Amino acid sequence: MLGELRWRIEADTGPVPWVEPNSVVGFDRELEFHRAKQHWFRSEPSLDLSESPVEVIPDYIDHYVSRAASSQRAVVDGERFLDAVLWLVRRLGSSYAVGTLAVWRELVQAIPAQAACEKVLVAIAGEPEPFVRDILRNVIRDFFDVGGAWPGWQERMRTEVEPGIVRSIEAPMIQGYETIDNVDARRFADGTPRL
User: Fold this and answer.
1) How far apart are CA 39 and CA 46, in angstroms?
2) Does residue 92 contact residue 33 with C-beta atoms inside 8 Å?
3) Could you give the CA distance from residue 143 to residue 116 in angstroms, rounded to a whole number?
4) Which tens digits make up the pLDDT trace of 12-39?
5) What is the pLDDT of residues 128-157, one digit of tens each?
6) Whether the model pTM is above 0.90
7) How large is the angle between the packed helices 29-40 and 53-70, nearest 10 degrees?
8) Most buried residue among 70, 87, 132, 149 by CB atoms closer than 10 A?
9) How confident is the model at residue 175 (pLDDT cuts 50, 70, 90)?
10) Is the pLDDT of residue 88 over 80?
């Protein structure tokens, strides 16, 4: 099925159906997670993941949303879209999914902020892998327009979600990354070069 997703992206013909990421077969999930983890901690991106499900599935979802939006067809609802992003991050360690799919943040922002934020916070709280928690932090930043790049985000969030949730969202933003140096993003937390 992974090959079919690749083919649909490359063929770029007609509408494409929504595919739940967890239904995609034809690869070893544990191996792909391990490869994504290795890729995260490499200072040089020598590990090519372009044909990996870590990148192919997000590319397919991006292709689906783009095709649906351009043809005025119904696009997947925000909750389902957010679930897909969280699955890609938590099960495959895909930071690529966040960077690629954040352009469709309006899908996530269309659902009640309280529920969406709680879903991400639960994922962070239950995640044992520090690098995945860091990627989930990027979900908060990139999908909810939270952080220093978006002036007024705290006031906006306070109007949309309960105070306890706002504090929970602020915490990872204030604490920063676990695996990346928060002063010099060119380095990992242990001081080794990242870029």
Assistant:
1) 8
2) yes
3) 10
4) 777 788 999 999 999 999 999 999 998 8
5) 999 999 999 999 888 887 776 777 777 877
6) no
7) 90
8) 132
9) confident
10) yes
DSSP 3-state assignment of 180?
A: strand
Terminal Cα distance for the chain, rounded: 34
Residues 6+ apart with CB under 8 A from 60: 5, 8, 9, 16, 19
Place of tokens 């077969």: 25
**How far is residue 143's CA from residue 138's CA, in Å, rounded to a whole number?**
8
Which two tokens mark 78?
């925000």
Residue 31: both structure tokens together? 């191996």
Pairwise CA distance, residues 110 & 78, whole Å: 6
Question: Which residue(s) pair with 187 in the sheet?
Answer: 193
Where exactly are the structural domains of the chain? Answer: 2-175
Euclidean distance between CA atoms 66 and 101, whole angstroms:
10
Task: Please tell me the distance from the alpha carbon of residue 126 to that of residue 36, in angstroms, as a whole number.
Answer: 19
Please say whether the beta carbons of 140 and 172 come within 8 A: yes
What's CA 53's distance to the chain center, in Å? Answer: 14
**Spatial distance between the Cα atoms of 3 and 56, rounded to a whole number of angstroms:** 9
| Rounded-to-integer distance, Cα 66 and Cα 15, Å | 10
Taken as a whole, the chain contains a residue count of 195
